[in-house]
Amino acid sequence: MEFGVFDHLDHGNGDFAKLYEMRLALIEAYDAAGFRGYHLAEHHATDLGAAPSPGVFLAAAAQRSKRLRLGAMVFCLPMYHPIRLMEEICMLDQMSGGRLDLGIGRGISPIENAYFGISPENAPAMYREAFDLIRQGLALGAEGGDLNFKGGYYNVEAMPVVLKPVQNPHPPLWMGVGLPDSAVWPAENAINIISNQAAEKVRAVTDRYRETWARAGRPEADLPRLGMTRHVVVAEQREAALALARRAYKPWRAAFYRLWDRHGSAPVGVSFPETFDELIEAGQAIAGTPEEVAETIRKQSEAAGINYFLCRFAFGDLTLEEARRSVDLFAAMKGALGG
Predict the structure, then answer these.
(1) pLDDT tens-digit profile of 121-145?
(2) Residue 264: what are its φ and ψ, rounded to 5°?
């Protein structure tokens, strides 16, 4: 089992400069504690995501860490010109010393896509085409030469590719997956996945991934990372952990739904109950003593069939000290979980 961190970088309280510095201080803590990776969400026009340009924050994070792998989860490809993002990916991989993980997607929110003039009908095709162009350009950067690409949305002719990634032909790929059928293409292409679902739904996803992987004749030992995220708060006493989690979850949830509520709609495929206690009951959050948290993670990971567990330590109005305490207590017990 490996452990990582997922972060919306939601704007819970204070000014933005202090928020960024708090998260960068936590980056240093994650790095020192031996977490494998830090995965940052991309959102726009919402308090849920104060890093609408993930690459800018990840560039800073690369300078505040030494071993921690860094990546957007995910870059919303239709919102970028693929050439610009391809070059940014190369820069980030170089600046981090080859520690970039490349999360790709079309963006979960049609509301946010619409602000960029992207329709729900066009987003899937734009995503696939942008991904093809970026992957071709990254591979070409490693080899050298000119980029030629002709598509329905993007056309490039004889463009010299000067930048290249450290990782050849490109950084490891990641996708968010919520449904079993959506696990087939990532499995066929050896792409790492992450899910926000409850354990039984994640198990349906990981089972389909493993079935597809095995059908291709690939050994279980070479399986990519199959991940799952949870809100996690750790304290010396269970009630202290629950009190922190209950308080912080309220502004986090409000931020999550604010844009959807404004447009009179709801997210598809994911939902979060009103209270943290209900979130625990749904199997999507963990709070308690180190021993209680460790046991819950062990049970949920086995039930979900994952090999990568991601913690959401910073959310809502948790302070640096409160989130850092969870990280320190988690790190002390991480070895007992095999991480």
Answers:
(1) 999 999 999 999 999 999 997 678 9
(2) 65, 35
Return the percent helix, strand and coil in the chain, to nearest 5. Answer: 50, 20, 35
Within-domain flag for 86: yes
Listed in sequence order, the residues at least 6 apart from 51 whose beta carbon sits closer than 8 Å to its beta carbon are 9, 40, 41, 42, 57
CA distance 278 to 69: 32
pLDDT of residue 218: 96
Q: Calculate what percentage of the chain has a pLDDT beyond 70.
A: 99
192 burial type by CB count under 10 A (0-12 exposed, 13-18 middle, 19+ buried): buried
Tell me the mean pLDDT in the region 165-187. Answer: 97
Q: What is the pLDDT of residue 338?
A: 75
126 exposure class (CB count in 10 Å sphere: 0-12, 13-18, 19+): buried
On the 0-12 / 13-18 / 19+ scale of CB atoms within 10 A, 162 is: exposed
Is 115 among the domain residues? Answer: no
Section 203-215 average pLDDT: 98
Q: Within a domain: residue 196?
A: yes
Other beta carbons within 10 Å of 147 = 17
What pTM was estimated for this model as a whole?
0.97
* pLDDT computed for residue 142 by the predictor: 66
Close Cβ partners of 247 (under 8 Å, ≥ 6 residues apart)? 316, 317
Domain membership of residue 207 (yes or no) is: yes
Contacts of 234 (CB under 8 A, 6+ apart): 241, 287, 288, 289, 290, 293, 325, 326, 329, 330
* CA–CA distance, 314 with 9 (Å, rounded to integer): 8
Pair of tokens at residue 150: 């002709």
- Average of pLDDT values for 161-182? 96
Specify the number of domains making up the chain. 1
Boundaries of domain holding 330: 2-108+171-337
Two structure tokens written together for 119 = 């329709």
- Residues 35/310, Cβ–Cβ less than 8 Å: no
Mean pLDDT of 102-115: 96
Q: Of 129, 58, 132, give the one whose Cα is nearest residue 97.
A: 58
Question: What is the domain-level CATH number for residue 202?
Answer: 3.20.20.30
Residue 105 has pLDDT above 90, yes or no: yes
